[in-house]
Amino acid sequence: PADNKRATEWNTLMTSFAQTSLTAPRLLRALLSVAVMALLLFSAPYAAMAEEKAVLKLGAPAPDFAFTSRDGSAHKLSQFRGKPVMLWFFASWCPTCISSTGTVSQRFEQLTAGGMQIIQLRLYNNLGYSGPSAEEFAQAYAGAPGESQQWLWGEASLEASVMYDPRGYPDLYFLIDRDGVLRGANGAPNASMNDILEFAGES
User: Fold this and answer.
1) CA–CA separation, 58 vs 61, rounded Å?
2) Are 98 and 190 in contact (CB under 8 A)?
3) What's the gap between Cα 127 and its chain centre?
4) How many whole angstroms separate alpha carbon 95 and alpha carbon 15?
5) DSSP track, 131-171
6) Is 103 in contact with 190 (CB distance < 8 Å)?
7) Average pLDDT over every residue of 161-176
8) Three-point CA angle 92, 183, 191, nearest 5°
9) What is the rounded distance in angstroms from the CA atom of residue 136 to the CA atom of residue 184?
10) How far is the C-alpha of 195 from the C-alpha of 46, rounded, in Å?
11) What angle do CA 139, 74, 149 make, to 5 degrees?
């Protein structure tokens, strides 16, 4: 019941955002993105480690962290310097994460044509709710593109989850340029795909 309540609340928010952003001009989409980010930053924390103030800033270097991909390989975010990166944190019970994964799969060639690396990590302990692992989620919803080395999957550590998503929202991505600098952040890629494609094309 708690799983369903949280998923329903998030899905309602993101569905409303998606319906508006599909028809809104770019300036309004940007304002909507800011509103979504405000909700992300000022909602109740999900873990005792969450800081009172957000430490991530657009235009600043993306904090480095380590993760293990689905094939067991060890990686660090910093090793992808030189490539634009879409860093996506998700919970596997989240409805918009499922639909957005399908959208990313459909647009995979466009997204990665310029060399963009997609890193999709399940938030630590799935934010405390039951659901498939990152591996199971990828197999169920990402299709063949999910097997590509340009779309890495893994489980985020507690440290990384709190660092990038201190308020515990289940569908949150960051756009990082070739120099490792944060250039954008939003939720529900299926609702903001045009902005991601634009970043991928310009970076």
Assistant:
1) 8
2) no
3) 14
4) 10
5) ---HHHHHHHHTTGGGGSTTEEEEE--HHHHHHH-TT--SE
6) yes
7) 94
8) 45
9) 28
10) 28
11) 45
- Per-residue pLDDT for 81 more than 80? yes
Residue 118 corresponds to which tokens in the numbers above?
């997609």
Tell me how far apart the alpha carbons of residues 17 and 49 are, in angstroms, rounded to a whole number.
29
Measuring CA to CA, which residue among 166, 140, 169, 165 is closest to residue 153? 140
pLDDT at 80 over 60: yes
Question: Region 180-197: what's the mean pLDDT?
Answer: 94
Burial class from Cβ neighbours inside 10 Å (0-12, 13-18, 19+) for residue 48 reads exposed
Q: For residues 59 and 96, what is the distance between their CA atoms, to the nearest angstrom?
A: 27
Tokens describing residue 154: 């893994």
The residue with tokens 């293990």 is: 68
The tokens describing 143, both together, are: 């299709």
User: Coil, strand, or helix at residue 159?
Assistant: helix
Containing 88, the helix (H) or strand (E) segment is strand 85-90
pLDDT in tens, 91-133: 999 999 999 999 999 999 999 999 999 999 999 999 999 999 9
Token digits of residue 5:
């309540």
Measured at the alpha carbon of residue 105, what is the angle toward residues 101 and 107, in degrees to the nearest 5? 115
Band (17; pLDDT cuts 50, 70, 90): very low
